[in-house]
Amino acid sequence: MADIVVDVWLYGALAKYGGDAAGPAHANLKVILPEGSTMSDLLERIGVPTEERGITFISGNLSAMPGLQPDLGHVLKDGDRVGIFDPRSMWPFQYRHGAAMIPEMSRAINEAEDLGLHHAYKEP
Amino acid sequence: MWILRLNMSDLSYRLEEVPAKYQHLGGRGLTSTIVHDEVPPLCHPLGPNNKLVFAPGIVTGTPAPTSARVSVGAKSPLTGGIKESNAGSSWAQHVANMQIKAIVVEGQAKGYHLAHLTWDAASGKPKVEFMPANEYAGKDLYEVFPKLYAKFGDKVSIAGTGNAGEFGYGNSGIVFNDMAGRPSRYSGRGGMGAVMASRGLKFIIADPKGAPGVVIKDKALFDEGRKKLIDALRTHDITKPKGGLNTYGTAVLINIMNEAGGLPTRNFASGRFEGAAKIAGEAIFEGNKKRLGKELYNHACSPGCIIQCSNTWHKADGSEHVSCIEYESDWSLGANCGIDDLDDIGELVRLCNAYGLDTIEAGTTLAVAMEAGIIKFGDGKGAINLMHEMGKGTPLGRILGGGTAFAGKAFGLTRVPTVKGQSMPAYEPRAVKGIGITYATSTMGADHTSGYTIAPEILGVSGKVDPLSPEGKAALSRAFQATTAFIDSTGHCLFIAFAILDIASGFEGMMEECNGVLGTNWKSEDAAKLGAEILKKERAFNEAAGIGKEADRMPEFMKYEPLPPHNVVWDLPDSALDSVYGEL
């Protein structure tokens, strides 16, 4: 089976999981994974506990918010850019309403009672 | 409570009792109502018939948290329509504590004057003394502010205008002091600085000594509301001490918008900037840590703020360079100009503060100049030189000072990101369509602060309409704009929205604070109705000024230039835009 290369950006406190690529404010690393690998596989490879991540993007598409992570089974493609933020980051609704999402996130938001209006999917 | 009128034509002043119809208004609600009631919509913004109105919010001056906001209103030389631009400063509290609900600046003086506002204990009223201020004209505000403090004492607060206002630029803000006495807090948008300077008014110095404070009609109710709001702000992840805003500042959004493909880059040619991580809030925090040898959390722009989101950037030797690099400034003078050097961005922000320019409009104008080939994208030093041209009023500087739309015409460009003459802030509407509806339809021109998500009940407004459909987005934008107009009237900073959206008792607390001060009986659901009344007045003024629904449109290039990386165009139908105010 062929491998895929994913362009991973870890921001803020998550930069510490960047290994040799870890900078003070962010880390940018290329991660090689077997074809068919999921977001969950990626997190396991780079050692980021999923509960430590907040807003997440896959190639410009919103894939997770704090407390709402429908992307764990999302199959990554070669060349995907994955951006993972620490939970202190934010993206207010008025600045994300209508932005691109992975299909799993679109479904999760549509099924959510608040339609994704809030900042986090946990008790504030 | 008083309405204070400054007549600049004969340098006199008058105190009026607040008319019954204005008694429950404050902040934006009051500035927009007075402009609507008193300013001829077709007057020249810099001519004798425009008026400049300052109004602290309803709870400003009380111990309500994060509430030292002042609204500034007039007919705008940038948009030709009504303008409300607000800022946080001790000046707002000082004016409110003198029991002044609004200051209305009328007429025009020869030369520049300042108004020294004090509390006259003998008469139990505010008092104004006019003084010549020509000596402060044409000067760097960082040079002038210490002279004003030396003359009037370090307890005073300052509102004023810089060189940009004196030149009559469409890009000219009104400056207020921050807590360290820096000229760094701005009612930046819409050319309010030029309206002030064209009255012949350079500064209003407020000395709060002896001022009696704001009357609170129901103290127990106010205290109850205040406690609820404080609890919400102190517990929410974004607004709490060492939370998102206190740690990374608003610039935490740089990397988010970049990953989303919605960070306007190089004059809105792309939604992604390769240098984003180098200029983001995380980089500011870590950069300061390296240069200072310790972590530096952000500070309050004004007394009584719990959120404390204002950062300070430091030079390589650890000395202070500038406060504050907000997200919008960081983006406009950084990514949108292709500049990835925080020291250059810091200097550009400092020069905006020094000359009295709005950082958003300045950056979007520099990017248009770069597009025109005046300097290259990414040329930080060239951008600094152009900023000096604006501040000195050279012929090129005056073209740039006119703002983004004006410069775009001068250079013969089509990619000019403005609505109603005001440039777009840092969220690409092709990538985030919801904010695009607000940019297109706001009474203020393109404005990112005119449609905040404040109350979850707002979801009810779209009824059975899919909130992701064009009609659903329009309904939400309408509700966002209305509740935002209300918050802008309370005197609270809009950033309380993060906490009160998620914590319902915080929202109740805000309403109880207002009811406590005014003696009203507003319920949470009244916020949107009260805000809608403000929007109706603003809209009526604009329509009478010739700015109707035809002006509620996105710039045409966004309809045919796909934006990388998503390669999307602006494709929402005009009918959705028309429904925002059509169904208000």
Structure write-up:
- The complex is a heterodimer of chains A (124) and B (584).
- Chain A has 124 residues and is an alpha+beta fold.
- In chain A, 14% of the residues lie in helices and 23% in strands.
- A 5-stranded mixed β-sheet of chain A has the order 2-1-5-3-4.
- The longest helix of chain A has 9 residues, at 103-111.
- The radius of gyration of chain A is 14 Å and the shape is globular.
- The mean pLDDT of chain A is 93.
- Chain B has 584 residues and is of the alpha+beta class.
- Chain B is 40% helix and 14% strand.
- Chain B contains 23 helices and 16 strands.
- In chain B, the strands form 4 sheets. In chain B, strands 2-1-6-3-4-5 form a 6-stranded mixed β-sheet, sandwiched between helices. Chain B has a 6-stranded mixed β-sheet with strand order 8-7-12-9-10-11, sandwiched between helices. In chain B, strands 13-14 form a two-stranded antiparallel ribbon.
- In chain B, α12 (342-355) packs parallel to α14, α17 (433-441) packs across α18 (470-490) and α18 crosses α21.
- The relative contact order of chain B is 0.13.
- The model of chain B has no long low-confidence stretch (mean pLDDT 96).
- The interface between A and B is large, with 40 and 58 residues.
For this structure, what is the CATH homologous superfamily of the largest domain in chain B? Aldehyde ferredoxin oxidoreductase, N-terminal domain
Question: What is the largest interface, and how many residues per chain?
Answer: A-B, 40 and 58 residues
Derived from helix and strand composition plus strand pairing, the structural class of chain A reads alpha+beta
Strand order of the largest sheet of chain B: 2-1-6-3-4-5
Topology-level CATH name of chain A: Ubiquitin-like (UB roll)
SS class of chain B: alpha+beta
Spatial strand arrangement across the major sheet of chain A:
2-1-5-3-4
The value of Rg of chain B in angstroms is: 22 Å
Count of discrete domains of chain A? 1
What would you call the shape of chain A? globular
Oligomeric state as shown? heterodimer
Largest sheet descriptor of chain A: 5 strands, mixed
